[in-house]
Each structure stands twice: as C-alpha cells, then as structure tokens.
C-alpha cells in the first residue's frame, strides 16, 4: 500500500513537471483528475499559509519562497488561486522595496481585481518613471470606473427592495382589511403643510364617480 501511495505521488509530481514545461500549448497540458486537483490545491494553500505566517513576521523573502512553492504546486487551470499567490508575492516585493519585481508579479495577477489594480498603481507611482506613472494612471482610471458604477447600482437595488417591502406590507394589509370590505387603497398619507408631519386619511372609494348631479325619475 505504501509503495502504491508513493507511486501516485511520483505520478502527480511528473504531471506537475510536465505542466511547468508545457505552458503555450494548453491542449498538451497534463489533465489532472478532480481528486488530484483538490489535493494539489490543498498543498498549495498550505504553502500560502506558511507564506502568510512569514509575512506577518516581516520575513518577506521567506514568504516569497512559500508563495512560489504554492505556484509550483497549484495546477495552471486554478487561475483564481494562482492570482492570489502572485498578488501576495507582489506585496512582499513592495515591502522589500523591490518595486519593479512587485509590478512584474502584479502583472501576472488577474486585472479584474480592483485590489491588485490599486496595489499595482501604488507600486508604479513609487517607481516614478514616465512609463510607470502612465500605467498607474490607467489603473487609477479603472479603479474609479469600477467605483463609479456602484452608486447607481446601489440606488436601483435600494428602490427595488423598498418596492418589494411595500408590496408585501400592502398584501398583508389588504388581507386584514378585506375582512371589513376595505383595502389599503382606502387610506392615504396626507402631509400637514404647517408641521410637515403626515396624517392618515380615509378615502371612501365607493363614492368615486358619483358627483350628485343625477336627475329624479
């Protein structure tokens, strides 16, 4: 049984080595089974945790080595996990004052993450070359664009949820008032022009449309 386990680990290791060598032809990348992927991701995350421990102790070089181990272990198709490892490496380089290396690491991180755009912009600003400052400006624009999209989305969702709550309250009120032949339409809020407060007024909808001008027969 022990030799069988060692054989599986050796096979997994060989797949990882092949994956590192073949990066351009995606179809040729060794395919891992779901069980193998899960095992490799767990191993990679253990390396990441070790790196985080070193990072918390300001041992950034050691942290980088652990994050690199995580990258070496994590399958290429697990892009989100690999993006995190690259982002952590970039942050370590910033702490070490190696800004160019930090930017290089951040460039391998998915650009859809606002967090890394912000970090990359900071690193490029500190590099303070024309190219780096231009890149920082583009990242800042992307961040602002992402942020500016949120207020209208929040307002829309707020209105939607408010309407849903009001609708549910009206349904509840109508069920209760229906027992008395009434509905929420029989009541309206009227603002007092003097105090600014609101009063609830009863509206007899059954009289609507009757203006009293009918003739005697």
How would you characterize this protein structure?
The chain is mainly α. The chain is built from eight helices and two strands, in the order H-H-H-H-H-H-H-H-E-E. Strands 1-2 form a two-stranded antiparallel sheet. Strand 1 (187-191) and strand 2 form a beta hairpin. The protein starts with a helix and ends in a 15-residue tail after the last strand.
Topology:
Elements: H1 2-21, H2 34-56, H3 60-73, H4 79-95, H5 99-107, H6 114-127, H7 130-148, H8 150-177, E1 187-191, E2 198-202
Antiparallel strand pairs: 1-2
TPR repeats: 44-77
Organism: Diversispora eburnea
InterPro entries: TPR-like_helical_dom_sf, TPR_domain_protein, TPR_rpt
Number of strands: 2
Mean pLDDT: 76
Low-confidence stretches: 20-27, 208-217
- Number of contiguous helices: 8
Largest sheet: 2 strands, antiparallel
End-to-end Cα distance, whole Å, is: 106 Å
Globally, the shape reads: elongated
